[in-house]
Design a protein that fits this description.
The protein is 22% helix and 40% strand.
Length: 192
């Protein structure tokens, strides 16, 4: 049974990302048609990875300024996060391998990266599907300082830290990025 009809969409803004207004009729739980309107933020799809070293009991996280956080919290606008980026025209694994080297300076191979999840972060308003990965690393795989892409105006600080410290930063509220929280909890259950 089709639960949607009279679907229309209008682009409200088309800059770095796209904001659309959609209207439609939806058959509700009472089996009645109701008219609804929503604003949908289309930012493309992304990938995120937690780099870990079991022998050292360490992980790699990045730190960078985030304007949406500034708009909400003002002084706490620098976020500690797992390495992540947009897919652009790549498949998720290719995209995350590129992001790992660009952001952290580590060069990993495709067979080192394990996909664990595919999820929507905010399905009520955002179209993004995020592909979650974990990958072991060694210091021998460090090929540059990382720091992100200058053309994307990224100013990323790379942190290698004990996994126990990351869990403490999660517990005390320093780490508040949802994708990073998911990966740290996965690592707590399955890796460390």
């Amino acid at each position: 049974m089709n639960k949607l009809k009279n679907f229309n969409e209008k682009i409200l803004s088309k800059g770095h990302f796209i904001l659309k207004k959609v209207s439609f009729d939806y058959k509700n739980l009472n089996n009645e048609w109701e008219h609804q309107e929503r604003e949908i933020f289309d930012r493309g799809h992304g990938a995120v990875v937690l780099l870990y070293n079991q022998q050292q009991q360490s992980i790699i996280l990045t730190e960078q300024f985030r304007m949406p956080v500034y708009m909400t919290e003002k002084e706490d606008a620098v976020m500690m996060e797992a390495c992540a980026g947009m897919l652009d025209d790549n498949d998720p694994k290719t995209a995350i391998i590129k992001e790992i080297e660009e952001e952290t300076g580590y060069r990993l191979k495709e067979d080192q990266i394990t996909k664990i999840y595919k999820a929507y972060s905010s399905p009520g308003a955002v179209t993004e599907i995020l592909h979650y990965f974990v990958a072991p690393y060694t210091r021998a795989q460090k090929v540059s300082g990382g720091g992100g892409s200058a053309e994307e105006t990224e100013n990323i600080i790379v942190h290698e830290m004990p996994f126990a410290k990351a869990i403490q930063l999660l517990s005390d509220g320093t780490i508040k990025d949802a994708k990073t929280i998911v990966l740290l909890q996965y690592a707590q259950l399955h890796i460390f």
